[in-house]
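Note to self: the last two entries modelled the partners one at a time, which told us nothing about the interface. This time every component goes in together.
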Amino acid sequence: MHTSIALGASAAVCLAALAVAQPASAQDCPVEAADAYEMTDVQVTALYACMEAAMADAYAQGDNPVADSYRDWTVTGVRPGPDPTHGDRLLLTFANEIAADTYLQFAEEGVEMLVGGILAKESIAINDGQGRVGPLFIMEKLGLDAAPETGGWSYTAVQPDGQMMNVPQSFCHDCHMNFEGRDGMAYPAAELRVAR
Ligand code: HEC
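The predicted structure of the combined assembly is written out below.
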């Protein structure tokens, strides 16, 4: 875990269980590592190059507008990085135009995302020596009037077949609340953040 904030292990396990078993991608992207944590920079970068086009196509199969456009947004990490909270998958977050300036400061305190800010996070699971497309996790700042119980955030996820995942708001928010001073934003691991 790359953060000093303690996160509930049971929530992490739970999120892994929410995982969508079947990838949409027929692409063959082998991985010579036991799991995402064992992978070198070079291995992760090569895997991402192999998967990225098919992954974006997979999410865009449905009618989610974020799935259609997030690849034109600002990438916030130098490469995908693993984290236990989202099912031990490799994660890479994109910020839309409204969110990018605020998010890329990676500030620890006094942060407030602007209404209309959206963060979309790709995920790749390593299963049976293969990279598999995981859900696209999305947080959108709607404002406190629209989402009073979740700090103004709406949480959604797009499955690898383009369909929306059924996620209870509290499930996502209870964990993101650990990052309260940063308006619920967890950020990529420090060594993987893009320099501004
Ligand atoms: C157990 C804790 C936990 C749960 C549950 C959780 N997240 Fe996260 N989330 C994190 C952490 C930690 C990160 C940063 C990981 C990284 O990018 O390396 C993160 C990052 C994100 C990001 C990128 C923006 C940011 O905060 O930096 C999005 C988008 C996101 N999560 C959406 C969701 C959605 C949607 C759900 C519910 C389906 C969810 N999360 C459930 C802990 C959690």
